[in-house]
Amino acid sequence: MTKPSHILPRSVKLYLTLLIISTGLILYGTLFPVDYDVPKQLLGLDKVIHILMFGAWSFFYGLVRFLKQKFSLLPVFLVSSFFGLVIEVLQYVLPTGRSLELMDFVADLTGIGLAVFVLYLLTKRVSEFRTEASS
Fold first, then answer.
1. What does pTM read for this prediction?
2. Is 14 exposed, middle or buried (0-12, 13-18, 19+ CB in 10 A)?
3. Are 104 and 47 in contact (CB under 8 A)?
4. Angle value at C-alpha 23, between 22 and 29, nearest 5 degrees
5. pLDDT single digits (tens) 85-99
């Protein structure tokens, strides 16, 4: 069985654009002032949103790095984690009506971990991403 040679588009511009868009959405969604109570049926759903947002952001960031021949996964995890931590600290510091929540950061780390795992699988299974420097 042969492996697909082009599973993902190889466009740095595409993934950089998606990274910028996802950054804007994260900043808007997490730092925009709120003055309403979250309905009880949506409690917990925000953690899923955190997982998806930070997972997507980390995945796009990792793809940009890979396409620029920077194959190490540790910086993807560290930069993404720092971004999530900065967001939580800003929620605490800025007068937005939001607060620092440890479980939000845990959800961020879960999404980041999933993205790094998918990127790791890409380094092992997709020839364009395979390199001796993969970690």
1. 0.83
2. middle
3. yes
4. 85
5. 999 999 999 888 788
